[in-house]
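Re: [ENG-882] Designed sequences occasionally contain unexpected residues at chain ends

Forwarding the minimal case from QA. Structure tokens:
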């Protein structure tokens, strides 16, 4: 596995691969790998000739009060895990080389970034779309792989690619969970043992909602009453949002018709956790 730090070197390598007719797959990450990240890489390894994983804790997607400085990092471990999967290039740019002095260009996807995490983190998606577009230009992938864990991010990137006619496919992959249902996340590390138990409320709420909808319940009010009760089960939980949305537009819905996404963000102590669940009416 090669480690590339310089953006120009990354693009030179990618253009060589392209000229040789290779299919490039990109998995963008912020590092501190867990099985969720590795599942995206394993998928990428299967579908592409050249697998690039970017590891970049992107400053422009963090708000001023957020955890940029404390974001967990373990470069040596990440290298080892990526190597085991057969990653060809780990692309690890410095912030100064991605945003050199004089940098002033940002790209914004408008509607789907307004609600959910966009409402609590107003500059977040502008940072995400900008860095992802830069990564696409540097890595030249035909396929880019993202996790459904960050569902609004996935929908936003899909919109970016369609709206700007980018010549690549965006693939969304399922959420990988711990044995007890907690969605894997680098930020789970921040949870103390009590908070770790409390964090299960997200999964419990999601499962309850899935069961209700599969059993024929379609009314938002009744579904969300149950979700709210489960999220509020413990006094140290603060709900940032709980939303029932159309799976492709992320618009809030009152009635489930076929399928919906339940999107959740809660704060437990100092840690903000997000999760989401596909709710499907049963066809019988
Ligand atoms: P991050 O390093 O948190 O920016 O995540 C990098 C990629 O991994 C994103 O596409 C995430 O959606 C994805 N990801 C993070 N956690 C999970 C998970 N538990 N299951 C599947 N994908 C995940």
């Amino acid at each position: 596995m090669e480690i590339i730090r310089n953006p120009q070197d990354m693009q030179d390598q990618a253009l060589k691969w392209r000229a040789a007719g290779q299919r490039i797959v990109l998995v963008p990450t912020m590092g501190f790998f867990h099985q969720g990240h590795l599942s995206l890489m394993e998928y990428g390894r299967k579908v592409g000739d050249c697998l690039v994983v970017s590891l970049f804790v992107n400053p422009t997607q963090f708000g001023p009060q957020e955890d940029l400085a404390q974001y967990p990092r373990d470069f040596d471990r990440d290298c080892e895990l990526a190597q085991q999967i057969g990653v060809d290039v780990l692309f690890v740019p410095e912030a100064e080389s991605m945003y050199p002095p004089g940098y002033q260009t940002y790209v914004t996807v408008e509607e789907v970034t307004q609600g959910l995490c966009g409402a609590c983190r107003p500059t977040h998606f502008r940072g995400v779309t900008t860095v992802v577009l830069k990564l696409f230009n540097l890595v030249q992938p035909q396929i880019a792989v993202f996790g459904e864990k960050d569902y609004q991010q996935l929908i936003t990137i899909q919109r970016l690619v369609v709206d700007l006619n980018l010549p690549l496919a965006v693939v969304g992959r399922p959420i990988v969970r711990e044995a007890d249902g907690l969605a894997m996340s680098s930020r789970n590390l921040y949870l103390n043992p009590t908070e770790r138990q409390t964090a299960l409320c997200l999964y419990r709420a999601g499962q309850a909602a899935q069961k209700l909808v599969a059993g024929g319940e379609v009314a938002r009010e009744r579904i969300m009453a149950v979700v709210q009760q489960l999220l509020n089960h413990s006094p140290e939980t603060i709900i940032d949002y709980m939303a029932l949305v159309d799976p492709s537009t992320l618009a809030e819905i009152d009635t489930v018709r076929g399928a919906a996404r339940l999107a959740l963000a809660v704060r437990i102590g100092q840690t903000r956790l997000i999760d989401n669940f596909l709710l499907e009416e049963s066809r019988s």
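QA comment: On inspection the terminal residues look reasonable. Residues 2-173 form a domain with the Rossmann fold fold (CATH 3.40.50.620). Proposing we downgrade this to a documentation issue.
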